[in-house]
Amino acid sequence: MKENRDQGLYVPEMEHDSCGIGFVANLKGRKSHKIVKDALSMLTCMEHRGAVGCEPTTGDGAGILIQIPHEFFLDECLKLGIKLPSFGKYGVGMIFFRAMK
Fold this sequence. Notes:
mainly alpha; 23% helix
């Protein structure tokens, strides 16, 4: 990329990403609490990722992404009078909006 040439104080060789990524899964697709425990343990081993809290028991706000159970969505949709398709036949999006004024 020609726009990344030395420009003033910018030195391309010093550019790097401090973000770490981990992935924990059961290769047979089995759900278990052990996967969640392992993922949380993995987060504690990633101090090099970047920000760390002022005490060792806090992190930088990073978390884990897990599947929300179909039964949860089914129960909530029933309360709202919404007919939910069967497991695996719908998608879910998490959208964050600004606070309403």
